[in-house]
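Final report, closing paragraph on structural work. Over the funding period we assembled a curated collection of sequence-structure pairs, and we close with a single example.
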Amino acid sequence: MRKTHLLGILLGLGISASQPQAGEVYRGMLLYENNCHACHYRFLHHRPQRKVRSLGELARQIVIWQAEVGLDWNAEDIADVQAYLNRRYYRFPQLTP
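Its predicted structure, as stored:
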């Protein structure tokens, strides 16, 4: 994935990262459970030295790893997985539009 494409996705997520709707969170859960959960057991999100320390970093890690495994997710997919993971594990404050 080109760096400019990655930057565009991250900027788009930052602009639209208001309170996610229930359908977005559910869709994010399905994407995560079907594509990521096999390698990312629950302890990953709770380990003391975790890399993710902000909502932006969460989006960045999703972008990096979905590209690494060849998922080719669009910005909506990434935002929905971010919404699910944030609600389920991280609980970072949401940005307001």
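The radius of gyration is 12 Å. The chain has one domain: 3-13+21-90. We thank the funder for supporting this effort.
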